[in-house]
Amino acid sequence: MNALEKFSLEGKTALVTGGNRGLGRGIAQALGEAGAAVAVTARTEEAAKTAAAELGELGIRAYGLRLEVSDMDDVERAVATIAAEFGEIDVLVNNAGVSIGGAAFDAPDSTWREVMSTNVDGVWYCSRAVGRRMRERSGGTIVNIGSISAEIVNQPRWQVSYLTSKAAVHQMTRALAAEWAPYGIRVNAVAPGYFLTEASPVDQPEYKPYCVDPAAMKRYGEPDELGPTVIYLASDASSFMTGSIVKIDGGYTLF
């Protein structure tokens, strides 16, 4: 196998949570373009199936499924369904997440619970449900979507719950990587900086002083700039890599 062949995901099945839009949609397409069959989930069946249909139009074998990642029973159901109807999962991308702003004194407790249950519990439930099946098959790869928010304080919105959740995702990545390495399961994460998505309108003027100007490259990222790194982490190209957090932020955190 030559160097380029190691990036191929031919014959693999990938699951991308929250794969119907934004970064998740870009990641799902990238994995499909690398040869994987891709299952995408969303909070509604319509959104998941629409995304799968769009991927199918690009020649990617895709499957859409409703999933609430913060519900352990729903996660177990979805993973079993995907395995039975679409194929055992070789690659899990824990992308589903929410970001809700609010100053610490003002935000209701429900905001904290919603962010942590989706961004932390969701990664935990999905990783364990898929990881158990990977252990039985002696291998697999998990890629968690963290954030530079694990180490900086975002502006202009205060969002302590989101920052805390992403720091937890980074540490969970390291912990699972160490524990699951003997089973042939690799666990890594990417830490995106500011990317333009439906939920992150960083092209608007009010975001420029906070999200664009501080970056060494003086721009925001596009969703298709994240997918190739996820391919790398999901494929044999990164076979000696686990527990790593790969930062993709245009040099934002250099200063």
TrEMBL record:
Gene3D superfamilies: NAD(P)-binding Rossmann-like Domain (3.40.50.720)
SUPFAM superfamilies: NAD(P)-binding Rossmann-fold domains
Domain Ketoreductase per the UniProt entry, residue ranges: 12-193
Any single Pfam family the record assigns to this protein: adh_short_C2
A molecular function GO annotation: oxidoreductase activity, acting on the CH-OH group of donors, NAD or NADP as acceptor
GO biological process, one term: carbohydrate metabolic process
Keywords tagged on the record: Oxidoreductase
Domain of life according to the entry: Bacteria
Family of the protein in this entry: Belongs to the short-chain dehydrogenases/reductases (SDR) family.
Name of the protein described by the UniProt record: NAD(P)-dependent dehydrogenase (Short-subunit alcohol dehydrogenase family)
Organism the protein comes from: Sphaerisporangium siamense
